[in-house]
Design a protein that fits this description.
Oligomer: single chain
Number of helices: 8
CATH superfamily of the largest domain: N-terminal domain of the delta subunit of the F1F0-ATP synthase
Largest sheet: 4 strands, mixed
Order of helices and strands: HHHHHHEHEEEH
Radius of gyration: 19 Å
CATH topology of the largest domain: Peroxidase, domain 1
Shape: elongated
Strand content: 5-15%
Distance between the termini: 42 Å
Number of domains: 2
Structural class: alpha+beta
Number of strands: 4
Length: about 180
Amino acid sequence: MKDSAIGSVVLNPYADALMSLAQSQNLVDEFGSNCADLLGLLDESPELNQILANPIVKIADKKAILGKIVTDKIHPFMANFLMILVDRRRIGYLAGICKRYQAALRDLKGIVLAEVTSAVALTDAQTQSVRDRVQGMTSAASVEIETKIDPDIIGGVIIKVGSQVIDSSLRAEIRRLGLSIA
């Protein structure tokens, strides 16, 4: 199944339902924070992700694991949502659902996500410079920065905002120079 098909069939309806619940209970920001915590947990523990996605692991075992790990760290409504995902055998899509929820939250608040790839970690001043540049380009209320480190770009940064990519990496400059010489 293609990613877009998974998105329209599984991820979007669950993320939309979560957003609807959050809006009706005035918990939009708290659920956003819960989603960020859950994504961090899944990133830190690939084993947890494998257990949750494994159809052989019993539903009761998955609920017990989630109960021990996250129940007291997230809102009770979010904990109930996770249990529904387990019951419906959709817990393996948790990361995608959380990412879709966060995207909907950014849209709701007028926040733009800028994915910044650099060869080394950016300083606070550099991050603020990127934030200001993206905010000027998009006229967004706010800019959220997601950073990645890729030593292969040699130097500079690659900024991706939606479908727009600004590649000011040294690797791209070398490639452009090579094309102009050829």
